[in-house]
Write a structure and sequence with these properties.
Pfam families: GatC (PF02686). It comes from Candidatus Methanomassiliicoccus intestinalis. This is Aspartyl/glutamyl-tRNA(Asn/Gln) amidotransferase subunit C. This protein has a domain of about 40 residues: Histone, subunit A (Orthogonal Bundle), CATH 1.10.20. Helix content is about 40%, strand content about 5%. It has three helices and two strands. A two-stranded antiparallel ribbon has the order 1-2.
Length: about 90
C-alpha cells in the first residue's frame, strides 16, 4: 500500500503539525516501510479459536476443603471476648 505525500499532509493537518515538503516525502517513505513490515501479519496462519495464552493453562491446585485447625473454644479463651464476640479497639 502506497502512502503518498498528500495523505501524510492530510494526517499532519488533522494532527496540527506543520511539515515541509521534504518532511512530507520522507514521512511518506517511512510510513510505507512501516506498512510493509506489518504486511508480514497477513502471512500468519489463521486460527478458528482465539485465546489469550498460546499455551494451554491447567489448574494444578487442589480443591479447597473446609476444616478446623484450631478449636473455637480455645481461641475464645485466648482472645478478649464478651458474650462470645471478639472485642476490638474503640473506633472514634
Amino acid at each position: 500500500m502506497a502512502i503518498d505525500p498528500k495523505t501524510v499532509e492530510r494526517v499532519a493537518k488533522v494532527a496540527r503539525i506543520n511539515l515541509t515538503e521534504e518532511e512530507l516525502k520522507r514521512y511518506s517513505e517511512d510510513l510505507e516501510e512501516i506498512l510493509e513490515a506489518f504486511s508480514i501479519l497477513d502471512e500468519a496462519p489463521e486460527c478458528d479459536s482465539f485465546d489469550f495464552n498460546p499455551v494451554n493453562v491447567e489448574n494444578i491446585l487442589r480443591d479447597d476443603e473446609p476444616r478446623l485447625d484450631i478449636d473455637p473454644a480455645i481461641l475464645r479463651d485466648l482472645m478478649h471476648t464478651v458474650d462470645d464476640r471478639v472485642r476490638g479497639p474503640r473506633v472514634i
